[in-house]
Target: Inhibin beta B chain
Amino acid sequence: MGSSDVQSGVRCVSLMLVVLVAATLSQTPGDAGCLTCGMPALEKGTEEQLLIEIAKLQILSKLHLKERPNITHPVPRAVLLTALRKLHAGRVRQDGTLELNSNLERQNARAKDQGYEIVSFADTDHRDAAKSGLTFQFSKERGMNFQILQSTLWLYFKSSSEAPKERVTAKVFLAGPHQSNRTLLSQKQFDVKWGSWQTFPITRGVQNIFDRGDKQVKLVLECEGCQDLAVLGSLGNASHQPFLVAQVRVREEHSIHKRSLDCDTNISLCCKKDIYVSFRDIGWQDWIIAPDGYHMNYCMGLCREHFAGAPGIAASFHAAVFNQLKANGIHSAVSSCCVPTQRRPLSMLYFDASHNIVKTDIPDMIVEACGCT
Model:
């Protein structure tokens, strides 16, 4: 999806929320104790429903997804757990769920680039005729928006006491349009006396594929004397299936940060209110691997005139919604809004539309501080 499509999607999200808020407010008495932006307070159930819809639309927009992925063929658990352990994305619990590293969000809280780690499993439906080829599918929405920082192919080689040589050389090529047109990406020597995972750096080849806008990476393996030892297809141990890990980044803009108060029963001024969004409760647990949910939080409270004008508000997603409320004259009393002034990213591991595993820190998802416009 291009940048213009994403911007259009965000505008549509804002307009949808304008209509939703307006419809809600029209059912509320005009002088019902305004606490935020000079507008009547929403009922608790309606307020939470609105915030959850904001969270869902915001996640899809920032992941450049038109809709939530439809997971029709789940990745086998053995394959998934092997890839997650190799990725070091976090700790795999005994029940098979994943606990993300708690320091990932803190490490990237002030980063200017949104980083991704994509795990793509070999597509067994597109195997090469010579049984030495591997095809990896990537989502159409991605492609040219990403800079490849690092890309690594993981292959498992079975042990063999009958190999002609204990030490062999394996080569990985980027397949061209014709059988003879191939580009050598990586080669390495290793011992095949014991079964082991081997890694092959292929950053340059994957970058070329993404630059062309293609969504398939086709690789060919050559290993003299060890060709039959490489696990390339769907046969054998399910946890030994080949996969590709790509670390990529895309530029995102961040706003200026400012601290604020947390809400409690004794605070009526602009403050931060905690709210937890459970991915299981909203039916997204099938495509979001981790976390189980997150503290979205939101801003509420009185905004006095001398509190207005906090820096960095114009870039706020919530502020954009309420600015459109003002522009459309939905409520004439709208003056100063209590909105987010500081956010941090949400670390997430999920399946994309091509059933690849993607790890990323979605910027500006968790509200940490509030202020007045």
The first strand starts at residue 90 and ends at 92. The domain at 3-67+255-349+362-372 is CATH 2.10.90.10 (Cystine Knot Cytokines, subunit B). The two ends are 32 Å apart (CA to CA).
